[in-house]
Amino acid sequence: MNYAYPMDETWSTQEIIDVVNFFSLIEQAYEKKVRRTDLLHLYRRFKEIVPSKSREKQLFEEFKRSSGYSSYHVVKKARESEEALITMA
């Protein structure tokens, strides 16, 4: 992992931890498998921290440029799937 997670200097320490955990699950969805419920739970928390759709898109794009992983596609797959585990492999 040679990339950084997107951050906002206005977030609290707990918010930073929660956002990093969310992006970490996105990463794991590409490299392994993640539990769908965990991913959706952390996405809901992410949306509490980042309610703006435009800001969400900016952060997703920053992460994609840095890592090559599409947060949008992982979240979309998790929302549409009935599977317990999500993988992008």
TrEMBL record:
Pfam families for this protein: UPF0223
Gene3D superfamilies registered for this protein in UniProt: BH2638-like
Family the UniProt entry places it in: Belongs to the UPF0223 family.
Name of protein: UPF0223 protein OSO01_13730
Organism from which the protein derives: Oceanobacillus sojae
